[in-house]
Every structure is written in C-alpha cells, then in structure tokens.
Specification:
six-stranded mixed sheet, alpha/beta, Rossmann fold, globular
C-alpha cells in the first residue's frame, strides 16, 4: 500500500501546488511531530503533506497510535509541529506567536469534541455565546439564536445542559463552535458519546453544513461516521497511507482491515 501525502508520494487532494491557495482551507507541508529525544523519541507524524479544499468534509481514520489525533491537533493549531508548516487559508500557523495563535483559534477555528464540554450553570444560549465573550466581543442575541436555529435548538435556548439529551448537548456544542463563523470546523470523535441514531443526526447536520460551504475535518474510528465525508484519509505510523473518495461504510471498513494487515 503506497503512502499518500509524504515527500515520495502524491499529495492528498491533487498533486502538490495544483490546488490554488484561495481554494485550499488547510495546507500541510512536510509536517513532522516528534516527542522525546534520542533513542526514546517517538514520531507521531512523519513528513505529512496534504491539501484540504474549502467546503469539503474530510474524515481521518487509523489504528490507535497512528497519529490521527496528533494530525488534528497540529492542523488546528493546538500543537506545534517539530518541523514543516501548517497554513490555514492565508495564515501560516507555525509562524505565529502563542498570543496570535490563540486569537486565530478563537476567530477562525471551531472545535467539537466527544465530550460536550458545556458549562453546566449556563443555558444553551449562554454556552453558545461564550466564545464571543472570551474574544472580548459582545454577543448579539439574534446571532446566537440564529446559530441555535441552525442546529434545531432555538426553542431550547433557555435550557441548561442537565435539561438536554446527549444529542442536544452535542448540537449546542456544535452551535458554540459555529458562532464565530470559523474557516474550519474540527471534530474529534464528535459522535463517540452518542447512540447510533443520535450520532447519525449529528453527522447529517455536519453534512448539511458542508453542503452549505463549511469545511469540516473529523477524526473518527467509526466507518459509518466516515461515510458521511467526501474523503477519508487513512493513517498508520504517522503517515497518510491511503485515501478513499465518496466513501461507504463497507468500503471504509475494508480499507481499515487492509491497513491493519498491510506491511509498513
């Protein structure tokens, strides 16, 4: 199985430099992330090069320890690569100071995690407005209610997390991620804590957002979740080993099985 997205293989998306910069949401070039030093060093990402076009839904899969979470963290500016560059739109994240990187994450990047991370003492409306307040902006109630409407929860604006189901809490978390109108929405197992029916509802909502122009990058272990994406990237040993366009759950599961038995 050939590597995709390394120095010796084609770039994910199309060949290197063939995707115009203004059409690319995220661009990684030779990104390596290592932990530790000397003989104890561990390479979590190994010279990953890829382009993710705007307005697309990308799922990232791989066995435990494959580097998928590290890829998400480096791409979202939560972690810094040991070497290489990460560019979000027109901004190279690896060149920013910590303060500027924090501001960029607040304004241009959205996050949804497996844990909903809602503040229990705040209503849904107040939880959604929180990123704007943290950024020093005065939330407009109409805008907050509009994003709750977008996830189907406007009528639950005054409810606290304990008064909402798990799926509703994840929808609030999704609205909170979208309220700043981010360039890219990152999801780390966003349906991992949900039952299958509720998970499908959240994935359908993400799919609808992508169809409306949002860019989504999601780490998942679930072939059914990955089947909602436009493309699935398969990681192993810190490298993108394979990619699948127009995925179905069965095809994703087959690729994962092949990845597990393929030689490195």
């Amino acid at each position: 199985m050939n590597d995709i997205g390394t120095n010796s293989a084609p770039t994910y998306g199309i060949a290197t430099n063939s995707v115009p910069t203004d059409c690319t949401a995220v661009r990684l070039r030779s990104v390596t992330r290592s932990y530790g030093k000397g003989a104890a060093a561990v390479t979590a990402l190994d010279r990953v090069t890829l382009d993710i076009p705007k307005g697309t839904f990308t799922a990232v899969m791989g066995p435990s320890g494959s580097g998928k979470s590290t890829l998400l963290q480096c791409t979202a500016g939560l972690d810094r690569p040991t070497s290489g560059t990460v560019t979000l739109g027109d901004r190279e994240l690896t060149a920013l100071s910590e303060n500027k990187l924090t501001l960029l994450r607040r304004e241009r990047i959205g996050f949804v995690f497996q844990a909903f991370n809602l503040l229990p003492s705040l209503t849904a409306e107040q939880n959604v407005a929180l990123p704007l307040r943290l950024a020093g902006r005065r939330p407009k109630r109409g805008a907050v209610l509009d994003v709750l409407e977008r996830v189907g929860l406007r009528e639950r604006a005054g409810h606290r997390p304990s008064e909402l189901s798990g799926g509703q809490q994840q929808r609030v978390a999704l609205a909170r991620a979208l309220v700043t109108r981010p360039d890219v929405l990152f999801g780390d197992e966003p349906t991992g804590a949900l039952d299958s029916r509720t998970g499908r509802e959240v994935l359908t909502l993400l799919r609808d957002m992508v169809d409306g122009g949002q860019t989504v990058i999601m780490v998942t272990h679930d072939p059914m979740a990955a089947s909602h994406a436009d493309r699935v990237l398969f990681l192993a040993d810190g490298r993108v080993r394979d990619a699948l366009d127009s995925p179905t759950a069965d095809r994703v599961a087959e690729r994962m099985t092949a990845l597990a038995v393929a030689p490195c």
